[in-house]
Design brief:
By secondary structure, the protein is mainly α. The chain has helices at 4-37, 44-48, 53-91, 104-134.
Length: 143
């Protein structure tokens, strides 16, 4: 059975990996939106014409918001850790240092952590809609 320190260490490692993947997905969504908004050559230009620009801009906006929330989460996390460190330093406490779960920084980092995943899901749903519209059969041309 793992010790509490091992569980905490694994949670910290996984959190960092999840944030890295979050940023990678957000940049990927942004790249797809950008490429479809700025396409100049057929047949992709014709295909991209079937996708409303507002849907592409929604995907791009969601992507940027995910990146902003990720950065703000780390700002809040840094503030939370600084507060716990200074509190422990002032009281001479070396072990079992706890975060203040009532602090704004603690609540903000938890909210931001979950909010970026909800936005990623929304971006993924927008991406599915975009791909469906991209790959719909071309309308028949009447002569």
């Amino acid at each position: 059975m793992p010790t509490l320190d091992e569980v905490y260490s694994r949670k910290k490692e996984a959190s960092g990996q999840v944030s890295t993947q979050t940023r990678t997905l957000a940049f990927g969504f942004l790249a797809i939106a950008w490429s479809l908004l700025t396409v100049h050559d057929d047949p992709l230009k014709t295909m991209a014409g079937r996708v409303p620009s507002c849907l592409l801009l929604t995907l791009a906006t969601i992507s940027v918001l995910v990146l902003v929330l990720d950065m703000l989460q780390y700002v809040a996390l840094t503030k939370m850790a600084e507060s716990a460190y200074h509190k422990a330093e002032n009281t001479g406490q070396k072990e079992n240092v706890l975060y203040d779960k009532d602090s704004c920084a603690y609540k903000a980092q938890a909210f931001l952590y979950h909010a970026k995943f909800y936005l990623l899901v929304a971006g993924f749903l927008a991406l599915i809609a975009i791909f469906v519209l991209l790959f719909l059969p071309a309308p028949a041309v009447s002569k």
